[in-house]
Inverse folding.
Protein backbone atom coordinates (compact mmCIF):
# COMPACT_ATOMS: atom_id res chain seq x y z
CA UNK A 1 0.00 0.00 0.00
CA UNK A 2 1.40 3.41 -1.10
CA UNK A 3 0.38 6.87 0.06
CA UNK A 4 0.19 9.99 -2.10
CA UNK A 5 3.98 10.51 -1.75
CA UNK A 6 4.49 6.95 -3.02
CA UNK A 7 5.80 5.90 0.39
CA UNK A 8 5.14 2.25 1.23
CA UNK A 9 2.81 2.20 4.25
CA UNK A 10 2.03 -1.51 4.55
CA UNK A 11 3.17 -4.86 3.12
CA UNK A 12 0.98 -7.96 3.35
CA UNK A 13 0.30 -11.26 1.59
CA UNK A 14 -2.89 -13.04 0.62
CA UNK A 15 -4.01 -16.22 -1.11
CA UNK A 16 -7.05 -14.34 -2.45
CA UNK A 17 -5.93 -10.79 -3.12
CA UNK A 18 -9.45 -9.58 -3.97
CA UNK A 19 -10.89 -10.64 -0.60
CA UNK A 20 -7.90 -9.30 1.35
CA UNK A 21 -8.05 -5.83 -0.23
CA UNK A 22 -11.85 -5.64 -0.01
CA UNK A 23 -11.69 -6.36 3.74
CA UNK A 24 -9.94 -3.03 4.34
CA UNK A 25 -12.85 -1.07 2.87
CA UNK A 26 -15.75 -2.74 4.64
CA UNK A 27 -17.60 -0.72 7.24
CA UNK A 28 -18.38 -1.71 10.84
CA UNK A 29 -15.96 -4.62 11.12
CA UNK A 30 -13.99 -3.34 14.15
CA UNK A 31 -10.69 -2.64 12.40
CA UNK A 32 -9.67 -0.01 14.93
CA UNK A 33 -8.59 3.63 14.42
CA UNK A 34 -5.05 2.78 13.32
CA UNK A 35 -6.24 0.72 10.33
CA UNK A 36 -8.90 3.31 9.51
CA UNK A 37 -6.20 5.98 9.44
CA UNK A 38 -4.09 3.83 7.11
CA UNK A 39 -7.00 3.19 4.74
CA UNK A 40 -7.65 6.93 4.43
CA UNK A 41 -4.07 7.46 3.24
CA UNK A 42 -3.99 4.71 0.57
CA UNK A 43 -3.28 6.19 -2.87
CA UNK A 44 -2.48 3.02 -4.82
CA UNK A 45 -1.75 -0.70 -4.48
CA UNK A 46 1.24 -2.55 -5.86
CA UNK A 47 1.26 -6.32 -6.07
CA UNK A 48 3.73 -9.09 -6.92
CA UNK A 49 2.62 -12.60 -7.90
CA UNK A 50 4.50 -15.62 -6.54
CA UNK A 51 4.23 -19.34 -7.22
CA UNK A 52 3.46 -20.45 -3.66
CA UNK A 53 2.50 -19.32 -0.17
CA UNK A 54 6.03 -20.04 0.96
CA UNK A 55 7.47 -17.65 -1.62
CA UNK A 56 4.92 -15.02 -0.59
CA UNK A 57 5.97 -15.41 3.05
CA UNK A 58 9.65 -14.91 2.22
CA UNK A 59 8.94 -11.96 -0.05
CA UNK A 60 6.67 -10.27 2.51
CA UNK A 61 9.37 -10.53 5.16
CA UNK A 62 12.08 -9.20 2.83
CA UNK A 63 9.98 -6.18 1.87
CA UNK A 64 9.13 -5.36 5.50
CA UNK A 65 12.81 -5.53 6.44
CA UNK A 66 13.78 -3.36 3.47
CA UNK A 67 11.14 -0.60 3.73
CA UNK A 68 10.03 -0.64 7.42
CA UNK A 69 6.43 0.32 6.56
CA UNK A 70 4.67 2.50 9.10
CA UNK A 71 1.67 0.22 9.62
CA UNK A 72 3.47 -3.13 9.79
CA UNK A 73 4.47 -4.51 13.17
CA UNK A 74 8.25 -4.08 13.20
CA UNK A 75 11.06 -5.76 15.08
CA UNK A 76 13.42 -3.11 16.42
CA UNK A 77 16.78 -4.82 16.74
CA UNK A 78 20.35 -3.67 16.10
CA UNK A 79 22.06 -6.33 18.22
CA UNK A 80 24.68 -8.85 17.26
CA UNK A 81 25.20 -11.91 19.41
CA UNK A 82 28.54 -13.14 20.76
CA UNK A 83 29.71 -16.64 19.89
CA UNK A 84 32.60 -18.85 20.92
CA UNK A 85 34.54 -19.75 17.78
CA UNK A 86 36.90 -22.74 17.57
CA UNK A 87 39.15 -22.60 14.50
CA UNK A 88 39.18 -26.36 13.93
CA UNK A 89 40.39 -25.90 10.34
CA UNK A 90 43.78 -24.69 11.63
CA UNK A 91 46.45 -27.26 12.43
CA UNK A 92 46.80 -25.71 15.90
CA UNK A 93 43.27 -24.39 16.58
CA UNK A 94 42.39 -21.41 18.77
CA UNK A 95 39.28 -20.48 20.75
CA UNK A 96 38.11 -16.97 19.92
CA UNK A 97 35.37 -14.44 20.62
CA UNK A 98 33.23 -13.70 17.56
CA UNK A 99 30.26 -11.49 16.72
CA UNK A 100 29.60 -13.20 13.39
CA UNK A 101 28.96 -16.80 12.42
CA UNK A 102 30.62 -17.40 9.05
CA UNK A 103 31.02 -20.40 6.78
CA UNK A 104 34.75 -20.63 7.45
CA UNK A 105 35.04 -24.28 8.57
CA UNK A 106 35.19 -23.20 12.23
CA UNK A 107 32.89 -24.50 14.96
CA UNK A 108 30.65 -22.00 16.72
CA UNK A 109 28.97 -22.25 20.12
CA UNK A 110 26.14 -19.91 21.03
CA UNK A 111 24.60 -17.48 20.60
CA UNK A 112 25.19 -16.08 24.06
CA UNK A 113 23.66 -12.93 25.46
CA UNK A 114 26.55 -11.69 27.61
CA UNK A 115 29.82 -10.75 25.94
CA UNK A 116 31.51 -10.63 29.35
CA UNK A 117 30.42 -14.21 30.11
CA UNK A 118 31.75 -15.39 26.74
CA UNK A 119 35.14 -13.78 27.37
CA UNK A 120 35.33 -15.28 30.88
CA UNK A 121 34.53 -18.72 29.49
CA UNK A 122 37.19 -18.44 26.76
CA UNK A 123 39.81 -17.40 29.32
CA UNK A 124 38.89 -20.35 31.55
CA UNK A 125 39.13 -22.85 28.67
CA UNK A 126 42.48 -21.50 27.46
CA UNK A 127 43.95 -21.73 30.95
CA UNK A 128 42.36 -25.11 31.60
CA UNK A 129 43.84 -26.75 28.51
CA UNK A 130 46.89 -24.56 27.89
CA UNK A 131 45.71 -23.44 24.46
CA UNK A 132 47.43 -20.77 22.40
CA UNK A 133 45.97 -17.27 22.12
CA UNK A 134 48.52 -15.82 19.65
CA UNK A 135 48.04 -15.05 15.94
CA UNK A 136 51.12 -16.91 14.74
CA UNK A 137 50.73 -19.09 11.68
CA UNK A 138 51.58 -22.60 12.82
CA UNK A 139 53.37 -24.83 11.96
CA UNK A 140 55.07 -22.31 9.62
CA UNK A 141 56.30 -20.08 12.49
CA UNK A 142 57.43 -22.83 14.89
CA UNK A 143 60.76 -21.84 16.43
CA UNK A 144 61.04 -18.51 14.56
CA UNK A 145 60.37 -16.29 17.58
CA UNK A 146 60.68 -16.69 21.29
CA UNK A 147 57.52 -17.87 23.08
CA UNK A 148 55.17 -15.36 24.70
CA UNK A 149 54.61 -14.66 28.39
CA UNK A 150 51.73 -17.16 28.60
CA UNK A 151 54.18 -19.95 27.81
CA UNK A 152 56.57 -18.88 30.59
CA UNK A 153 53.62 -18.59 32.99
CA UNK A 154 52.66 -22.16 32.03
CA UNK A 155 49.30 -21.00 30.71
CA UNK A 156 50.10 -22.15 27.15
CA UNK A 157 51.55 -25.49 26.12
CA UNK A 158 53.79 -23.71 23.60
CA UNK A 159 53.03 -25.16 20.16
CA UNK A 160 55.18 -22.32 18.73
CA UNK A 161 58.25 -23.89 20.38
CA UNK A 162 57.67 -27.37 19.02
CA UNK A 163 57.38 -28.76 22.58
CA UNK A 164 54.02 -30.36 21.78
CA UNK A 165 53.01 -32.37 18.72
CA UNK A 166 50.03 -31.57 16.56
CA UNK A 167 48.30 -34.74 17.77
CA UNK A 168 48.83 -33.88 21.44
CA UNK A 169 47.52 -30.36 20.87
CA UNK A 170 44.49 -31.72 19.03
CA UNK A 171 43.65 -33.87 22.08
CA UNK A 172 43.49 -30.69 24.16
CA UNK A 173 41.20 -29.06 21.60
CA UNK A 174 38.93 -32.14 21.58
CA UNK A 175 38.58 -31.89 25.36
CA UNK A 176 37.77 -28.18 25.04
CA UNK A 177 35.09 -29.01 22.46
CA UNK A 178 33.61 -31.56 24.88
CA UNK A 179 33.57 -28.85 27.53
CA UNK A 180 31.80 -26.37 25.23
CA UNK A 181 29.32 -29.06 24.31
CA UNK A 182 28.33 -29.37 27.96
CA UNK A 183 30.24 -32.52 28.93
CA UNK A 184 31.26 -31.21 32.34
CA UNK A 185 31.27 -34.61 34.09
CA UNK A 186 34.24 -35.92 32.09
CA UNK A 187 36.29 -32.83 32.86
CA UNK A 188 35.46 -32.86 36.56
CA UNK A 189 36.35 -36.56 36.85
CA UNK A 190 39.63 -35.98 35.00
CA UNK A 191 40.56 -33.10 37.29
CA UNK A 192 39.46 -35.07 40.34
CA UNK A 193 41.82 -37.93 39.40
CA UNK A 194 44.71 -35.52 38.82
CA UNK A 195 44.07 -33.81 42.15
CA UNK A 196 44.04 -37.12 44.05
CA UNK A 197 47.18 -38.30 42.26
CA UNK A 198 49.02 -35.07 43.07
CA UNK A 199 47.90 -35.31 46.69
CA UNK A 200 49.18 -38.89 46.99
CA UNK A 201 52.52 -37.73 45.59
CA UNK A 202 52.63 -34.93 48.21
CA UNK A 203 52.44 -32.35 45.40
CA UNK A 204 50.02 -30.16 47.29
CA UNK A 205 50.58 -27.07 45.16
CA UNK A 206 49.31 -28.80 42.02
CA UNK A 207 46.60 -30.55 43.99
CA UNK A 208 45.30 -27.15 45.11
CA UNK A 209 45.43 -25.91 41.51
CA UNK A 210 43.30 -28.86 40.34
CA UNK A 211 40.91 -28.29 43.25
CA UNK A 212 40.38 -24.67 42.16
CA UNK A 213 39.87 -25.71 38.55
CA UNK A 214 37.21 -28.22 39.61
CA UNK A 215 35.40 -25.47 41.47
CA UNK A 216 35.57 -23.19 38.41
CA UNK A 217 34.11 -25.87 36.16
CA UNK A 218 31.31 -26.53 38.63
CA UNK A 219 30.48 -22.81 38.71
CA UNK A 220 30.23 -22.75 34.90
CA UNK A 221 28.14 -25.91 34.92
CA UNK A 222 25.79 -24.51 37.55
CA UNK A 223 24.91 -21.61 35.26
CA UNK A 224 22.98 -24.11 33.12
CA UNK A 225 20.31 -25.07 35.65
CA UNK A 226 17.63 -26.10 33.19
CA UNK A 227 18.45 -29.26 31.31
CA UNK A 228 16.57 -31.67 29.12
CA UNK A 229 17.55 -35.27 28.47
CA UNK A 230 16.59 -34.85 24.80
CA UNK A 231 19.66 -32.58 24.33
CA UNK A 232 17.81 -30.62 21.64
CA UNK A 233 18.43 -27.08 20.41
CA UNK A 234 15.35 -24.96 20.90
CA UNK A 235 14.16 -21.40 21.36
CA UNK A 236 11.34 -20.60 23.79
CA UNK A 237 9.45 -17.44 22.83
CA UNK A 238 7.07 -15.58 25.15
CA UNK A 239 5.38 -12.19 24.91
CA UNK A 240 4.08 -9.45 27.20
CA UNK A 241 1.92 -6.58 25.91
CA UNK A 242 0.28 -3.40 27.15
CA UNK A 243 -1.70 -0.74 25.31
CA UNK A 244 1.25 0.59 23.32
CA UNK A 245 4.24 -1.71 23.63
CA UNK A 246 5.20 -5.36 23.45
CA UNK A 247 8.25 -7.25 24.65
CA UNK A 248 9.19 -10.62 23.20
CA UNK A 249 11.40 -12.78 25.40
CA UNK A 250 13.53 -15.55 23.85
CA UNK A 251 15.22 -18.28 25.89
CA UNK A 252 18.06 -19.98 24.00
CA UNK A 253 18.36 -23.70 24.80
CA UNK A 254 21.32 -25.48 23.20
CA UNK A 255 22.08 -29.18 23.66
CA UNK A 256 19.28 -29.29 26.24
CA UNK A 257 20.76 -26.50 28.36
CA UNK A 258 19.49 -22.98 28.82
CA UNK A 259 22.47 -20.86 27.78
CA UNK A 260 20.94 -17.40 27.88
CA UNK A 261 18.04 -15.14 27.14
CA UNK A 262 17.30 -12.01 25.14
CA UNK A 263 14.42 -9.60 24.84
CA UNK A 264 13.15 -7.51 21.95
CA UNK A 265 10.88 -4.49 21.81
CA UNK A 266 8.24 -4.40 19.09
CA UNK A 267 6.76 -1.24 17.61
CA UNK A 268 3.45 -0.51 15.85
CA UNK A 269 1.65 -3.07 18.00
CA UNK A 270 -1.38 -0.98 19.00
CA UNK A 271 -4.57 -3.08 19.03
CA UNK A 272 -2.81 -6.04 17.39
CA UNK A 273 -3.47 -9.43 19.03
CA UNK A 274 -0.49 -11.19 20.60
CA UNK A 275 -0.65 -14.00 18.00
CA UNK A 276 -0.12 -11.48 15.19
CA UNK A 277 2.79 -9.84 17.02
CA UNK A 278 4.38 -13.27 17.54
CA UNK A 279 3.88 -14.09 13.85
CA UNK A 280 5.70 -10.93 12.76
CA UNK A 281 8.47 -11.52 15.29
CA UNK A 282 9.12 -15.11 14.20
CA UNK A 283 9.29 -14.16 10.52
CA UNK A 284 11.60 -11.19 11.01
CA UNK A 285 13.84 -12.67 13.71
CA UNK A 286 14.56 -15.96 11.97
CA UNK A 287 15.12 -14.26 8.62
CA UNK A 288 18.18 -12.57 10.13
CA UNK A 289 19.58 -14.91 12.79
CA UNK A 290 22.48 -17.14 11.66
CA UNK A 291 21.33 -20.12 13.75
CA UNK A 292 17.92 -21.80 13.60
CA UNK A 293 17.15 -24.40 16.32
CA UNK A 294 15.35 -27.68 15.73
CA UNK A 295 12.39 -26.67 17.90
CA UNK A 296 10.65 -23.34 18.50
CA UNK A 297 8.15 -23.13 21.37
CA UNK A 298 5.41 -20.49 21.29
CA UNK A 299 2.82 -19.54 23.93
CA UNK A 300 -0.01 -19.80 21.37
CA UNK A 301 -0.59 -20.93 17.82
CA UNK A 302 0.12 -18.47 15.02
CA UNK A 303 -1.16 -18.15 11.47
CA UNK A 304 0.67 -20.01 8.69
CA UNK A 305 2.50 -22.19 11.22
CA UNK A 306 3.02 -25.06 8.76
CA UNK A 307 4.29 -22.72 6.02
CA UNK A 308 6.71 -21.05 8.43
CA UNK A 309 7.95 -24.49 9.53
CA UNK A 310 8.62 -25.34 5.88
CA UNK A 311 10.42 -22.03 5.32
CA UNK A 312 12.64 -22.47 8.41
CA UNK A 313 13.35 -26.10 7.50
CA UNK A 314 14.56 -24.98 4.07
CA UNK A 315 16.81 -22.35 5.66
CA UNK A 316 18.24 -24.77 8.23
CA UNK A 317 18.61 -27.72 5.89
CA UNK A 318 16.76 -30.07 8.24
CA UNK A 319 13.31 -30.30 9.84
CA UNK A 320 12.23 -27.48 12.18
CA UNK A 321 9.22 -27.87 14.49
CA UNK A 322 7.05 -25.07 15.92
CA UNK A 323 4.99 -26.24 18.90
CA UNK A 324 2.84 -24.86 21.73
CA UNK A 325 3.78 -26.67 25.00
CA UNK A 326 0.78 -27.46 27.20
CA UNK A 327 2.24 -29.34 30.18
CA UNK A 328 5.39 -30.53 31.92
CA UNK A 329 8.80 -28.90 32.13
CA UNK A 330 8.46 -27.24 28.72
CA UNK A 331 5.34 -25.37 29.82
CA UNK A 332 7.08 -24.26 33.01
CA UNK A 333 9.96 -22.86 30.97
CA UNK A 334 7.44 -20.97 28.85
CA UNK A 335 5.86 -19.54 32.01
CA UNK A 336 9.28 -18.39 33.19
CA UNK A 337 9.97 -16.71 29.86
CA UNK A 338 6.57 -14.95 30.06
CA UNK A 339 7.31 -13.68 33.57
CA UNK A 340 10.65 -12.29 32.38
CA UNK A 341 8.95 -10.53 29.50
CA UNK A 342 6.42 -8.93 31.86
CA UNK A 343 9.19 -7.86 34.23
CA UNK A 344 11.18 -6.23 31.43
CA UNK A 345 8.08 -4.51 30.06
CA UNK A 346 7.25 -3.00 33.45
CA UNK A 347 10.75 -2.05 34.63
CA UNK A 348 12.87 -1.32 31.59
CA UNK A 349 10.40 0.26 29.17
CA UNK A 350 11.13 3.87 30.04
CA UNK A 351 14.89 3.36 30.19
CA UNK A 352 14.89 1.65 26.81
CA UNK A 353 12.76 4.42 25.33
CA UNK A 354 15.16 7.05 26.63
CA UNK A 355 18.11 5.19 25.09
CA UNK A 356 16.29 4.86 21.78
CA UNK A 357 15.53 8.59 21.93
CA UNK A 358 19.26 9.33 22.35
CA UNK A 359 20.19 7.14 19.37
CA UNK A 360 17.53 6.17 16.84
CA UNK A 361 15.26 9.06 17.82
CA UNK A 362 18.13 11.54 17.46
CA UNK A 363 18.92 10.18 13.99
CA UNK A 364 15.28 10.67 12.99
CA UNK A 365 15.48 14.30 14.16
CA UNK A 366 18.57 14.87 11.99
CA UNK A 367 16.80 13.24 9.04
CA UNK A 368 13.86 15.59 9.46
CA UNK A 369 16.06 18.66 9.85
CA UNK A 370 18.08 17.88 6.71
CA UNK A 371 15.16 16.50 4.73
CA UNK A 372 16.84 13.18 3.92
CA UNK A 373 15.76 9.55 4.42
CA UNK A 374 17.46 6.26 5.20
CA UNK A 375 20.09 7.79 7.49
CA UNK A 376 21.92 4.95 9.20
CA UNK A 377 25.69 5.35 8.91
CA UNK A 378 27.35 8.71 9.58
CA UNK A 379 31.06 9.45 9.27
CA UNK A 380 32.72 12.51 10.80
CA UNK A 381 36.21 13.86 10.07
CA UNK A 382 38.63 16.17 11.86
CA UNK A 383 42.23 17.40 11.44
CA UNK A 384 44.73 17.90 14.25
CA UNK A 385 48.21 19.53 14.27
CA UNK A 386 50.32 22.09 16.09
CA UNK A 387 51.57 24.76 13.69
CA UNK A 388 51.65 22.17 10.93
CA UNK A 389 53.68 19.63 12.90
CA UNK A 390 52.54 15.99 12.60
CA UNK A 391 49.35 16.63 10.62
CA UNK A 392 46.82 13.85 11.27
CA UNK A 393 43.19 13.16 10.39
CA UNK A 394 40.50 11.18 12.15
CA UNK A 395 37.41 9.36 10.94
CA UNK A 396 34.72 8.27 13.39
CA UNK A 397 31.66 6.23 12.49
CA UNK A 398 28.18 6.22 14.04
CA UNK A 399 25.53 3.69 13.07
CA UNK A 400 21.94 4.02 14.32
CA UNK A 401 23.10 6.80 16.60
CA UNK A 402 25.81 4.73 18.31
CA UNK A 403 29.60 4.82 17.80
CA UNK A 404 31.01 1.92 15.80
CA UNK A 405 34.59 2.02 17.01
CA UNK A 406 35.71 -0.97 14.94
CA UNK A 407 35.30 1.26 11.85
CA UNK A 408 37.22 4.27 13.24
CA UNK A 409 40.31 5.14 11.18
CA UNK A 410 43.43 7.32 11.64
CA UNK A 411 45.27 9.10 8.84
CA UNK A 412 48.81 10.43 8.96
CA UNK A 413 49.00 13.22 6.40
CA UNK A 414 51.55 12.44 3.68
CA UNK A 415 51.30 15.24 1.10
CA UNK A 416 50.78 18.40 3.15
CA UNK A 417 53.49 20.33 4.97
CA UNK A 418 52.44 23.11 7.30
CA UNK A 419 49.13 24.13 8.84
CA UNK A 420 46.74 23.76 5.88
CA UNK A 421 43.59 22.08 7.25
CA UNK A 422 41.75 22.23 3.92
CA UNK A 423 44.53 20.44 2.03
CA UNK A 424 44.82 17.89 4.84
CA UNK A 425 41.07 17.21 4.74
CA UNK A 426 41.21 16.83 0.95
CA UNK A 427 43.89 14.15 1.33
CA UNK A 428 42.04 12.32 4.13
CA UNK A 429 38.74 12.16 2.27
CA UNK A 430 40.38 11.16 -1.01
CA UNK A 431 42.31 8.34 0.64
CA UNK A 432 39.28 7.07 2.53
CA UNK A 433 36.95 7.02 -0.49
CA UNK A 434 39.54 5.69 -2.94
CA UNK A 435 40.41 2.94 -0.49
CA UNK A 436 36.72 2.01 -0.34
CA UNK A 437 36.41 1.91 -4.14
CA UNK A 438 39.58 -0.20 -4.52
CA UNK A 439 38.68 -2.54 -1.68
CA UNK A 440 35.20 -3.13 -3.09
CA UNK A 441 36.64 -3.88 -6.53
CA UNK A 442 39.19 -6.26 -5.02
CA UNK A 443 36.50 -8.12 -3.09
CA UNK A 444 34.33 -8.40 -6.20
CA UNK A 445 37.26 -9.81 -8.19
CA UNK A 446 37.88 -12.37 -5.43
CA UNK A 447 34.13 -13.08 -5.18
CA UNK A 448 33.95 -12.11 -1.50
CA UNK A 449 30.94 -10.43 0.11
CA UNK A 450 31.71 -6.69 0.19
CA UNK A 451 30.18 -6.43 3.68
CA UNK A 452 33.36 -7.95 5.07
CA UNK A 453 35.45 -5.02 3.79
CA UNK A 454 36.23 -2.31 6.33
CA UNK A 455 36.07 0.62 3.86
CA UNK A 456 33.53 -0.63 1.33
CA UNK A 457 30.50 0.71 3.20
CA UNK A 458 30.10 4.37 2.32
CA UNK A 459 28.22 6.63 4.75
CA UNK A 460 24.67 7.90 4.30
CA UNK A 461 25.89 11.29 5.58
CA UNK A 462 29.35 12.86 5.93
CA UNK A 463 29.76 15.30 8.84
CA UNK A 464 32.56 17.87 8.61
CA UNK A 465 34.00 19.66 11.65
CA UNK A 466 33.37 23.17 10.36
CA UNK A 467 31.19 25.22 8.06
CA UNK A 468 31.19 26.15 4.37
CA UNK A 469 34.93 25.76 3.76
CA UNK A 470 35.18 22.19 5.04
CA UNK A 471 31.91 21.19 3.34
CA UNK A 472 33.13 22.55 -0.02
CA UNK A 473 36.37 20.57 0.29
CA UNK A 474 34.37 17.39 0.81
CA UNK A 475 32.00 18.16 -2.07
CA UNK A 476 35.02 18.74 -4.31
CA UNK A 477 36.47 15.31 -3.43
CA UNK A 478 33.12 13.61 -4.04
CA UNK A 479 32.82 15.35 -7.42
CA UNK A 480 36.36 14.30 -8.39
CA UNK A 481 35.56 10.65 -7.56
CA UNK A 482 32.03 10.65 -9.00
CA UNK A 483 30.38 9.79 -5.67
CA UNK A 484 27.10 11.21 -4.41
CA UNK A 485 26.88 11.43 -0.59
CA UNK A 486 25.13 14.20 1.41
CA UNK A 487 27.60 16.44 3.26
CA UNK A 488 26.80 18.48 6.35
CA UNK A 489 28.99 20.92 8.28
CA UNK A 490 28.90 21.16 12.08
CA UNK A 491 29.13 24.94 12.60
CA UNK A 492 30.54 26.32 15.86
CA UNK A 493 30.05 29.72 17.51
CA UNK A 494 32.76 32.03 18.87
CA UNK A 495 32.93 29.93 22.05
CA UNK A 496 33.69 26.78 20.00
CA UNK A 497 30.25 25.31 20.69
CA UNK A 498 28.05 23.78 18.02
CA UNK A 499 25.35 26.24 16.97
CA UNK A 500 23.89 24.69 13.80
CA UNK A 501 24.34 22.61 10.67
CA UNK A 502 25.52 23.83 7.27
CA UNK A 503 23.70 21.87 4.54
CA UNK A 504 22.99 22.68 0.86
CA UNK A 505 24.55 26.16 1.21
CA UNK A 506 22.27 27.06 4.12
CA UNK A 507 23.02 27.20 7.84
CA UNK A 508 20.20 25.37 9.62
CA UNK A 509 19.53 26.33 13.24
CA UNK A 510 19.02 23.41 15.57
CA UNK A 511 17.30 23.24 18.95
CA UNK A 512 20.12 22.91 21.48
CA UNK A 513 17.80 20.98 23.81
CA UNK A 514 16.96 18.31 21.21
CA UNK A 515 18.41 14.81 21.12
CA UNK A 516 19.52 15.43 17.51
CA UNK A 517 21.68 18.37 18.65
CA UNK A 518 23.16 16.31 21.49
CA UNK A 519 24.04 13.51 19.08
CA UNK A 520 25.73 15.96 16.68
CA UNK A 521 27.73 17.36 19.59
CA UNK A 522 28.79 13.87 20.69
CA UNK A 523 29.92 13.01 17.17
CA UNK A 524 31.86 16.26 16.82
CA UNK A 525 33.56 15.80 20.21
CA UNK A 526 34.40 12.19 19.38
CA UNK A 527 36.03 13.11 16.05
CA UNK A 528 38.04 15.81 17.81
CA UNK A 529 39.06 13.49 20.66
CA UNK A 530 40.15 10.73 18.28
CA UNK A 531 42.29 13.14 16.22
CA UNK A 532 43.86 14.76 19.31
CA UNK A 533 44.79 11.38 20.84
CA UNK A 534 46.47 10.24 17.63
CA UNK A 535 48.37 13.53 17.31
CA UNK A 536 49.44 13.32 20.95
CA UNK A 537 50.76 9.78 20.45
CA UNK A 538 52.84 10.89 17.44
CA UNK A 539 54.25 13.84 19.39
CA UNK A 540 55.24 11.51 22.22
CA UNK A 541 57.04 9.19 19.83
CA UNK A 542 58.85 12.12 18.22
CA UNK A 543 60.04 13.35 21.62
CA UNK A 544 61.50 9.98 22.56
CA UNK A 545 64.75 10.65 20.73
CA UNK A 546 68.38 9.87 21.34
CA UNK A 547 71.10 12.52 21.04
CA UNK A 548 72.84 10.06 18.71
CA UNK A 549 70.18 10.81 16.10
CA UNK A 550 71.72 14.28 15.61
CA UNK A 551 75.10 12.86 14.55
CA UNK A 552 75.69 12.62 10.76
CA UNK A 553 75.99 9.00 9.61
CA UNK A 554 74.15 7.50 12.61
CA UNK A 555 70.93 5.67 11.80
CA UNK A 556 68.87 3.13 13.73
CA UNK A 557 71.27 0.22 13.05
CA UNK A 558 74.45 2.04 14.11
CA UNK A 559 72.68 3.60 17.10
CA UNK A 560 71.66 0.12 18.24
CA UNK A 561 75.20 -1.20 17.76
CA UNK A 562 76.65 1.66 19.83
CA UNK A 563 74.21 1.18 22.68
CA UNK A 564 74.84 -2.57 22.66
CA UNK A 565 78.59 -2.06 23.08
CA UNK A 566 78.70 0.96 25.40
CA UNK A 567 75.50 0.54 27.42
CA UNK A 568 74.99 4.31 27.98
CA UNK A 569 75.44 7.72 26.29
CA UNK A 570 77.98 8.66 28.98
CA UNK A 571 80.20 5.71 28.00
CA UNK A 572 80.03 6.75 24.33
CA UNK A 573 81.00 10.34 25.23
CA UNK A 574 84.07 9.14 27.11
CA UNK A 575 85.20 6.67 24.42
CA UNK A 576 88.15 7.41 22.14
CA UNK A 577 88.02 7.28 18.35
CA UNK A 578 89.81 3.91 18.45
CA UNK A 579 87.23 2.49 20.90
CA UNK A 580 84.39 3.71 18.72
CA UNK A 581 85.99 2.25 15.58
CA UNK A 582 86.00 -1.21 17.11
CA UNK A 583 82.20 -1.28 17.15
CA UNK A 584 80.79 -3.34 14.24
CA UNK A 585 79.40 -1.19 11.38
CA UNK A 586 81.13 1.97 12.69
CA UNK A 587 83.87 3.04 10.23
CA UNK A 588 86.66 5.35 11.42
CA UNK A 589 85.19 8.40 9.68
CA UNK A 590 81.90 7.95 11.54
CA UNK A 591 83.79 7.32 14.80
CA UNK A 592 85.52 10.67 14.32
CA UNK A 593 82.11 12.36 13.74
CA UNK A 594 80.81 10.85 17.00
CA UNK A 595 83.89 11.95 18.94
CA UNK A 596 83.75 15.46 17.48
CA UNK A 597 80.02 15.77 18.22
CA UNK A 598 80.40 15.11 21.93
CA UNK A 599 83.65 16.98 22.47
CA UNK A 600 82.81 20.03 20.39
CA UNK A 601 79.18 20.52 21.53
CA UNK A 602 79.23 19.51 25.19
CA UNK A 603 80.34 22.30 27.53
Amino acid sequence: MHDENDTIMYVGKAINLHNRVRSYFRSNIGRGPQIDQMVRQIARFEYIVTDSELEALVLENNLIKEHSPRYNTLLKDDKTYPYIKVTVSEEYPRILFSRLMKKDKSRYFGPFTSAAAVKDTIELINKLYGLRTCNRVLPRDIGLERPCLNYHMKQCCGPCTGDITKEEYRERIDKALDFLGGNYAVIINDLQNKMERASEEMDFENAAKYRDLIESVRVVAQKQKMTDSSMEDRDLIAIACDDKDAVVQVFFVRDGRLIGREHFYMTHVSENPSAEILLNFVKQFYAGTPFIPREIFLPEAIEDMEIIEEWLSNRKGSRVYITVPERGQKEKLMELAAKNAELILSKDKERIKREEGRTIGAVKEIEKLLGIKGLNRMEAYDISNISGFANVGSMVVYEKGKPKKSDYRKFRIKTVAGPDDYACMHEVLTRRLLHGIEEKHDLEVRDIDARFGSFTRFPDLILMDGGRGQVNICLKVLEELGINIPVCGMVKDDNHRTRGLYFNNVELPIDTRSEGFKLITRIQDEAHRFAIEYHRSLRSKAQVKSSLDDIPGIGPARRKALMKNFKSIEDIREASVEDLSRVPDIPKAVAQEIYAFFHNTIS
Remarks:
- The radius of gyration is 32 Å.
- The first helix runs from residue 17 to 23.
- The chain has five domains: 17-72, 83-182, 234-347, 360-542, 547-601.
